[in-house]
Amino acid sequence: MKNVAIVYGGRSVEHEISVITALEAAQAIDTTRYKVTLVYIDLHGRWWTGEKLRDRSFYAAFHGRTEGAKLEVEEVTLLPTPGIGGLVRGSKDGVLAAVARLFGGGPKKDVVIPVDVWMPLLHGTYGEDGCIQGLFELTELPYTGAPVRAAAVGMSKPTTKALAAQRGVPVLPWVVVEQHQWSTKDPGPVLDRLTTALSREGGGAWPLFVKPANLGSSVGVAKVEDAPGLIAALVKVFQHDSQAIVEPCVVDLSEINVSVRRVNGAPVASVVEMPVRRSKSGVLTYEDKYVGSGGKKKAPSAGMATMARVTDPPELPQEFKDAARAHACTVYDALGCMGVSRIDFILDGAAGQLYFNEINTLPGSVAHYLWSASTPSLLYTELLGAMIEEAEARRGAERRLSREFGFKALK
Amino acid sequence: MNPTALLVLHTALALVGVGAFAWRRTLHLMRYFQQEEYDSKRFWAWLQDNKAFDRRGTAVALTTALVLVAAQAWWFVVFGVAIAGMVGLLVMAQGEVDPRVTGKKKLVMTQRASRIHRLALALFAGFSAPFLVMLLVAGGAMGPAFAWGWVVVLVQIAPFFLMLSERMLAPGEKRIQDGFQAEARKILADVAPTVIGITGSYGKTSTKMILGELLSADAPTFWTAKSINTPLGVTREIREKMKAHHTWAVMEMGAYNIGSVKRLCDFTPPKAAIVTAVGIMHLERFGSPENVYTAKSELAQAVPADGVLVCNGDDPGARRMSVEYPKTTTLLYGFDGADLACKMTDVETVPEGSRFTLHWQGKAYPGTTPLHGRPMLSNLMAAFTMAAAQGVHPDVLLAVIRTLKPVENRLQVQQNGAVTWLHDAYNSNPAGFTAALDVLAAMPGQRRILVTPGMVELGDQQEARNREVAAKAATVCDLVLLVGETNRIALATGLKDGGAKDEAVRWYARRDEAFAALQKEQAPGDVVLVENDLPDLYEGTVIL
Question: ipTM more than 0.85?
Answer without folding.
Answer: no
